[in-house]
Design goal:
The complex is a heterodimer of chains A (294) and B (802).
Chain A: E1 2-4, H1 10-13, E2 18-20, H2 25-35, E3 39-42, H3 46-54, E4 62-65, E5 75-78, E6 86-90, H4 95-100, H5 102-106, H6 109-116, H7 121-124, H8 129-134, H9 140-146, E7 150-155, E8 158-163, H10 164-169, E9 178-185, E10 190-197, E11 205-216, E12 221-231, E13 234-238, H11 240-247, H12 252-262, H13 273-293
Parallel strand pairs in A: 2-4, 3-4
Antiparallel strand pairs in A: 5-6, 6-9, 7-8, 7-9, 10-11, 11-12, 12-13
Chain B: H1 7-10, H2 19-22, H3 35-39, E1 55-61, E2 67-73, H4 75-78, E3 83-87, E4 112-113, E5 119-125, H5 128-137, E6 139-144, H6 151-154, E7 168-176, H7 179-182, E8 188-195, E9 208-213, E10 219-222, H8 228-239, E11 246-249, H9 266-276, E12 280-283, H10 286-292, E13 294-295, E14 299-307, E15 313-325, H11 331-341, E16 350-359, E17 364-365, H12 373-391, H13 395-402, H14 421-430, E18 442-443, E19 449-462, E20 471-478, E21 484-487, H15 497-509, E22 516-519, H16 537-564, E23 571-574, E24 577-580, E25 587-589, E26 594-596, E27 607-610, H17 611-617, E28 622-629, E29 645-658, E30 663-674, H18 681-700, E31 706-707, E32 710-711, E33 730-736, H19 758-770, H20 781-784, H21 788-795
Parallel strand pairs in B: 1-12, 10-11, 13-17, 15-16, 21-22, 30-33
Antiparallel strand pairs in B: 1-5, 2-4, 2-6, 3-5, 7-16, 8-14, 9-10, 9-12, 14-15, 18-19, 19-29, 20-21, 20-28, 23-24, 24-27, 25-26, 29-30, 31-32
The chains are: A alpha+beta (294), B alpha+beta (802).
Chain lengths: 294, 802
């Protein structure tokens, strides 16, 4: 026997959330520091909104919108001594902007493919790369991992660069940092991106796979293989063992086994962990076999 | 009439042979009057309506799928500023219950909650936010009870009983011959259990409306429904108000598919409006809609079917177990329909079908396009495929050997309107180019993509069935402004009844679109014409017009002849008014208000009198009414619910299975539908295409997963309906229109039949593609996926094991 309040109605009931729209990174960071857990950064808000609606997280009394901070909206080419293009993409750049930007979606095809696989065009016009990554399960993460992307954050007057893989391995508890952008290189060679969803498009991921490699046609081998998987509430990971297997010219069956070992066990009401492993291992093995025989 | 570009035939040209596409050039292709506004998002629905001073209503639903309700304390909520009413069971002046047939759904629960959509209180406040805050301030004391989340659990001897009458809502039985002993003489017998999902109707417009107390004490309800008069009756019981004091305005509607036939938020909006004396707006969020709305019945169907060595089916048994959820609504009727249709369009001498519809705490299941046919046809057609496989026969040929003849009795032994529909659609399927590929699988563009073709056949009854009141009717009126009004009680929820009525008016009177006014969806103005349900509206509109139009036209012509001083046979109705058919001929002189042969000029030679002039000259308004019942069987002792008018359909489809992921894609579907003459080609096409997309979701992606009586998927981010990228690139629809010469019944309905046949056709195609038998929907990629080495082996020429 128990008394039950009906707190699920509370989120809808609170109409008093205040939105800050700072002009600078510093100001945004200060506001967050001031309000702590009573505030949340927000950009497109597409993912956060579903969390608030479902009760997975509570709409805080303060929102700090990143929409007026110019550097966070920019895609810029970094000075680089190498031939490859190096890019910095602001955390609040929308997925639609990345999709259509010649330097981003165009010059980095793996990123372009990944962005197009997220949600639907209307959502992509609002959702941002920062939000996708900060959700820790976004479809862009495997692509950024395969691109060896670096996450740039701001804290107390300092900018910090950290490999995304390293950042993901952390617990995300450091709320004193504001993610301001991502740096990545345009890599030569080939790539593919595959999102296995519950339907053909506008779908949650069942498993998402990103892969980049170079084919050495003279030696008939694959070089610089980068494979990452994510999706569906799973912590995205690089599949280092499978990469090594592929680079050492192992058969599809060995790559298959290595992929299976590397994928975290995640199940939900749609797909079992076993299905996710097999589907990912199948797709990766088949694609790499084809590339090797290519 | 503008004809749209033929987008379908441009998709690889295959649709060009479809008779429905040919119609586009024959002038019957009518763009739906409500189409442009809907497509542009400009149409104002009832749930968009606002009124000055209106309050916002919200509903408090149960926190538990099954619990005793010990106490409800609304004192804190009632005292909140801006909150105008907090209502509970004590505030219901009339019957605290509703339901189309049995009124067992509590408006407000008093002592027990049986599913998470059960209602405990309702609130009206100045804003939606305040109403939500008030809900959170209602304190409820529950005592949780064991949750019955599976119909098998409900049938256990020690199961808690959800209703006084126990956990069984309905039992059905249909028996011919002696099925059990006939299995002894069968050469092959196949036995399988089929499982179908709980499906959401997923109308785009969630439930809601505006509820307005009028100054004269009446109540106006602007809220979508499939049957305004039924809502009015149900509300009058709850509110203890005479039916005439309630006006239900119910169109336009943003989709229903059976889901809005039962009441939803109307009792609460009405009660709150009457208590506060102010207009109250209700509008469910999608989450509230998922939580509270009725769903398609999940069914577990066990079938055993036997044939002789020549493929003649001798014996067929089906046991249907339906999860009807917490309350009755139309659960009994859905089960009756499933029972009737579980032997399909086949002549089987020994049949035993038994059905059980069982109460659980899994929400509420009820009416849904297809009405129980979808589930049993999936199972039955699966049996046919399995039998053919065992016999080594082509499955389509096996169907032919067992197909009903035109004059055969219906599935429950009742006399039905004879048509050759079953054979017509069987033959039409063979015209699909896909059929040459049936039986064998093929490889797609990658070695791991396997293709297969499958087909299925459907027989589907229209109308409510024998012994269930099924009144129809209609009214024609010459309005003062000269419009020819067609006044019907049907609702427009996207199925196109406005187009149907417009086309029928044009057919009968030869008039122009602008001469016509369609009046529907308002109990203050329309006659009783029954519910827009059970594939009946088009058929009933056609039959009503057959009765109404000749006498109405004659009355108009008689008056016109009198005014013009000519004979009846010199006149006919047409565009703009009454036209002369013979020279020389007088026309009506507006100035002198008399006929004047000398006023005749070349430009007005043929139109003798406008409808407006005719209306003005009428001493009394010209009105023609009819009422009749949906035709039923003339058998002496037919089973209650058995049908008389049937439509038939075949579906041929090609699918591609990705063996690396187990995902199925439907590449193309060809539909043939025998339902009598097509009234509205665009509407017909829309029903079949739209129905098959709905069926695609049922087959591949849709399932309202519940865990211990709670919805695991509460939003469209996890409940997956097909998108444009999921649907086949090609959908062809052929209408087989021929009826026997003496058939008096005209068009049969097609509102549901397009949703039925796709699932078994896809299942057969998947089997032909990769060898796996499908017995559970939606098809799970987990069943079809194979490990890489097995797939490799296959594309090197080996075979993939099941």
């Amino acid at each position: 026997m128990e008394w039950t309040g009906h707190s699920e109605h509370l989120t809808a009931a609170v109409g008093m959330t205040q939105v800050w729209r700072p002009d600078t990174t510093e100001e945004a960071w200060r506001l967050k520091r001031q309000y702590g857990t009573f505030a949340s950064y927000v950009a497109g808000g597409t993912w956060l909104r579903t969390r608030w609606e479902s009760g997975s997280s509570v709409l805080p009394p303060y929102l700090i919108s990143l929409d007026k901070i110019a550097p966070l909206q920019a895609i810029q080419q970094l000075e680089s001594e190498q031939e490859a293009v190096e890019l910095r993409i602001g955390a609040a750049v929308t997925l639609a902007a990345i999709e259509s930007h010649p330097l981003a979606g165009g010059a980095v095809p793996l990123l372009g493919k990944a962005v197009s696989a997220v949600a639907a065009p209307s959502v992509r016009r609002q959702a941002t790369i920062g939000g996708n990554v900060m959700s820790r399960s976004g479809d862009l993460i495997p692509a950024l991992l395969a691109l060896d992307a670096v996450i740039v954050s701001y804290s107390q007057g300092q900018y910090e660069r950290q490999p995304l893989a390293e950042w993901l391995a952390g617990d995300g508890g450091d709320c004193d940092k504001l993610t301001v952008g991502f740096e990545l290189k345009q890599v030569g060679g080939s790539c593919w991106f595959r999102k296995i969803g519950r339907r053909e498009t506008f779908t949650p991921s069942v498993i998402t796979i990103a892969c980049a490699y170079r084919a050495d046609s003279t030696a008939g081998r694959l070089l610089d293989v980068r494979i990452a998987v994510g999706g569906a509430g799973m912590a995205p990971v690089r599949l280092y063992e499978a990469e090594t297997a592929a680079e050492s010219g192992a058969s599809g069956a060995s790559v298959y086994a290595a992929v299976r070992k590397g994928i975290p066990s995640v199940a939900d009401d749609y797909a079992s962990a076993a299905y996710r492993r097999m589907a990912a291992a199948n797709v990766i093995a088949a694609e790499l076999d084809r590339a090797a025989s290519g | 009439m503008e004809k749209p570009d033929d987008d379908r035939s441009s998709s690889e040209g295959a649709a060009a042979s479809s008779p429905l596409n040919n119609r586009r050039s024959a002038g019957r292709w009518m763009e739906r009057p409500d189409g442009a506004a809907k497509a542009a998002g400009k149409l104002v629905y009832l749930t968009d309506m606002k009124k000055p001073g209106m309050l916002h209503g919200k509903i408090l639903r149960s926190s538990y799928p099954h619990a005793r309700l010990l106490e409800v304390d609304v004192s804190a909520a009632s005292q909140m500023p801006g909150v105008h009413a907090v209502l509970t069971a004590d505030d219901v002046p009339g019957l605290n219950g509703y339901g189309i047939v049995t009124q067992d759904i509590p408006v407000f629960c008093t002592d027990r909650v049986r599913h998470v959509g059960d209602v405990i209180a309702a609130v009206a406040a100045d804003t939606a936010e305040l109403a939500a805050a008030a809900l959170s301030a209602v304190r409820v004391q529950y005592e949780q009870l064991a949750v019955i989340d599976d119909p098998a659990l409900a049938l256990a001897p020690d199961a808690p009983q959800l209703h006084e009458g126990g956990n069984v809502l309905a039992r059905t039985r249909a028996a011919f011959g002696d099925a059990d002993s006939a299995f002894d003489s069968c050469a092959v017998i196949v036995e399988e259990e089929y499982v179908t999902p709980r499906q959401l109707h997923l109308y785009m417009e969630t439930e809601g409306g505006l509820f307005v107390p009028e100054e004269d004490g009446r109540l106006t309800v602007y809220s979508p429904t499939q049957h305004g008069y039924k809502d009015r009756l149900q509300l009058s019981r709850i509110l203890a108000m005479p039916e005439e004091s309630i006006r239900v305005v119910s169109s336009p509607i943003g989709g229903s598919f059976g889901g809005k036939d039962e009441l939803n938020v109307q009792p609460y909006g009405a009660l709150l409006a009457l208590y506060t004396g102010r207009p109250v707006k209700m509008h469910n969020s999608r989450r509230e809609s998922v939580r509270s709305s009725i769903k398609r019945h999940p069914m577990r169907i066990r079938m055993k079917t036997g044939a002789d060595k020549d493929g003649r089916i001798i014996a067929h048994r089906a046991d249907i177990l339906a999860d009807t959820g917490a309350y009755a609504t139309l659960g009994r009727e859905v089960l009756m329909f499933a029972t009737e249709h579980a032997s399909g369009p086949y002549r089987i001498p020994n049949v035993l079908i038994e059905g059980l519809s069982v109460f659980t705490n899994n929400g509420v299941a009820g009416e849904f396009r297809g009405f129980g046919g979808n589930q049993v046809i999936f199972a039955l057609e699966g049996q046919i495929e399995r039998l053919a496989d065992r016999l080594g026969l082509d499955a389509w040929e096996l169907r032919r050997r067992n197909l009903r003849e035109a004059d055969d009795p219906g599935p429950l032994g009742q006399k039905i309107a004879p048509t050759d529909g079953a054979r017509q659609v069987w033959e039409a399927a063979l015209r699909s180019p896909l059929m040459t590929k049936r039986g064998g699988g093929a490889q797609g563009e990658e070695p791991w993509l396997l293709r297969g073709v499958g087909a299925a056949i459907v027989m589907h009854g229209g109308g409510l069935g024998y012994g269930i009141p099924d009144p129809a009717g209609g009214r024609l009126r010459l309005a003062d402004d000269g419009k020819l009004e067609a006044v019907f009680g049907f609702e427009e929820f996207g199925q196109g009844v406005i187009s149907v009525l417009t086309l029928l008016m044009r057919d009968h009177f030869g008039c122009a679109g602008e001469d016509i006014r369609i009046v529907i969806g308002d109990t203050d103005t329309v006659p009783h014409t029954g519910s827009a349900t059970a594939s009946r509206a088009t058929a009933m509109a056609w039959q009503a017009m057959q009765r109404l139009a000749p006498p109405f036209a004659e009355s108009m012509l008689r008056k016109a002849a009198e005014l013009l001083g000519c004979t009846l046979d010199q006149l006919e109705t047409g565009e703009g008014g009454i036209w002369r058919t013979a020279d020389p001929f007088p026309v009506w002189d507006c100035q002198s208000e008399r006929s004047s042969p000398e006023a005749c000029s070349p430009s007005c030679q043929t139109l003798a009198l406008t409808y407006r002039q005719l209306a003005a000259a009428m001493a009394e308004p010209l009105v023609q009414e009819t009422s009749f019942d949906f035709p039923v069987t003339s058998s002496a002792t037919p089973a209650v619910g058995s049908h008389f008018l049937y439509s038939y359909a075949s579906v041929v489809t090609e699918v591609e299975v990705d063996m690396l992921t187990g995902k199925v894609r439907v590449l193309r579907t060809d539909h043939a539908v025998a339902a009598g003459p097509v009234v509205n080609p665009m509407g017909f096409l829309g029903q079949i295409e739209g129905g098959s997309v709905m069926a695609l979701g049922f087959t591949l992606t849709e399932d309202v997963v519940m865990e211990e009586g709670r919805y695991a998927r509460q939003q469209l981010d996890t409940y997956m309906i097909p998108t444009i990228r999921d649907i086949p690139r090609q959908v062809c629809v052929e209408a087989v229109e021929q009826l026997p010469e003496d058939d008096p019944f005209g068009p049969r309905g097609v509102g549901e039949i397009g949703t039925v046949g796709l699932a078994p056709a896809v299942a057969a195609a998947v089997r032909n593609a990769c060898g796996s038998w499908i017995s559970r929907l939606p098809i799970r990629p987990e069943q079809l996926i194979r490990p890489y080495h097995a797939v490799r082996q296959h594309w090197r020429g080996g075979d993939i094991g099941d």
